[in-house]
């Protein structure tokens, strides 16, 4: 099976909050993830990021910057992804649930998760505080 290319987008507002969505299907169902999706033929990382964020949240983004990339092999699911992470600072706007593959979407505090978000885009609900925690590291 050939690897697929995914794009994950860190959308950050002036309050330092990030947009996360809860997955409903595909790998990681029920977990929390950044907006994003598969790169289409002849599409740039930036164009993919803008398209996916608009489809999933209704937010329009531009001036997207490359952050990092990961090589994720999920042997149990027999999937292989190269995930490109990009970032965008949102001026304003309200994230709203548009994508039917997501259970929920919204802005979450700066302290949500931890810095390992850069290497693992899959999260699960945390303790009673409502914080999100990284479910596993690859």
From TrEMBL:
InterPro entries: Nudix_hydrolase (IPR020476), NUDIX_hydrolase-like_dom_sf (IPR015797), NUDIX_hydrolase_CS (IPR020084), NUDIX_hydrolase_dom (IPR000086). Keywords: Hydrolase. Residues 2-138 form the Nudix hydrolase domain. One of its GO terms (biological process) is dGTP catabolic process. One of its GO terms (cellular component) is cytosol. One of its GO terms (molecular function) is 8-oxo-7,8-dihydrodeoxyguanosine triphosphate pyrophosphatase activity. CDD domains: NUDIX_MTH2_Nudt15 (cd04678). Belongs to the Nudix hydrolase family. This is Nudix hydrolase domain-containing protein.
């Amino acid at each position: 099976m050939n690897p697929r290319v995914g794009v994950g987008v860190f959308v950050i507002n002036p309050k330092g909050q990030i947009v996360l969505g809860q997955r409903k299907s595909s790998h990681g169902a029920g977990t929390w993830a950044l907006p994003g999706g598969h790169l289409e033929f002849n599409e740039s990382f930036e164009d993919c990021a803008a398209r996916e964020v608009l489809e999933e949240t209704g937010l329009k983004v531009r001036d997207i910057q490359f952050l990092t990339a990961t090589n994720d092999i999920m042997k149990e699911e027999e999937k292989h992804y190269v995930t490109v992470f990009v970032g965008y600072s949102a001026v304003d706007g309200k994230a709203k649930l548009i994508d039917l593959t997501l259970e929920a979407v919204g802005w979450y505090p700066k302290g949500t998760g931890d810095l390992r978000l850069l290497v693992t885009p899959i999260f699960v609900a945390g303790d009673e505080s409502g914080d999100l925690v990284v479910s596993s590291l690859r």
